[in-house]
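REQUEST FORM: STRUCTURE PREDICTION
Request ID: SP-0412
Submitted by: Lab K.M.
Chain count: 1
Length (residues): 231
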Amino acid sequence: MCGNNMSAPLPAIVPAARKATAAVSLTLRLCGRHGWAEAFAGIRIPHVKYICPHAPTMPVSLNMRMSMPSWFDIYGLNPDAEEDESGIKRASENIKALIDQEVKNGIPSHRIILGGFSQGGALSLYTALTTQQKLAGVVALSCWLPLRNSFPQASANSANKDMHLLQCHGDSDPLVPFVFGSQTAEKMKTLINPANISFKSYRGLPHSACPEEMVDVKRFIEKQLPPISDE
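STATUS: Completed
RESULT:
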């Protein structure tokens, strides 16, 4: 899955311990999925299938055009920086195709959560707001809403105006500043039911995850994707 014409490996899949009746798609940090194995293991739930798409390798402007795993190009880290609109939209279409594939596999879209960290979280937010598939919710970690000025028009046909959102951000994040997260939460309140938004901050946390955050993520998944009666 990728936001450009470069190929990427197939998503890594962690099957459910029993029959899968729900799925979580986790698009993780821009520079790959390394370092997340321990945190990922801590949020596993028996009836949930976990899908981890791989970002393709591409030149990134912010990285002096050096190639690295990335969902789309990044030109800068300030609120007024130019954004890779075409790359973001193409990457989002690929996440939507992943949702469609899971529906074909027998998991209804309302039993699917999109989630991600940093650039992956940004992509999850954008995809949820622009898809016509009704989702169970979104987990957005240390991220922002890309192409924010295209909303609310871009989400006019979204099926997720009442979706549940867990947004988490460390208050010492030097890469995606905490204010980006809080501003994104305020923007999201104008796009979906504000009663369904939970914004959590973590004291002293830089651009990474922590055990407390992973507990919050697992509780959110358990609440939005409970076992069904015939499991």
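NOTES: The mean pLDDT is 88.
Reviewed by: T.R.
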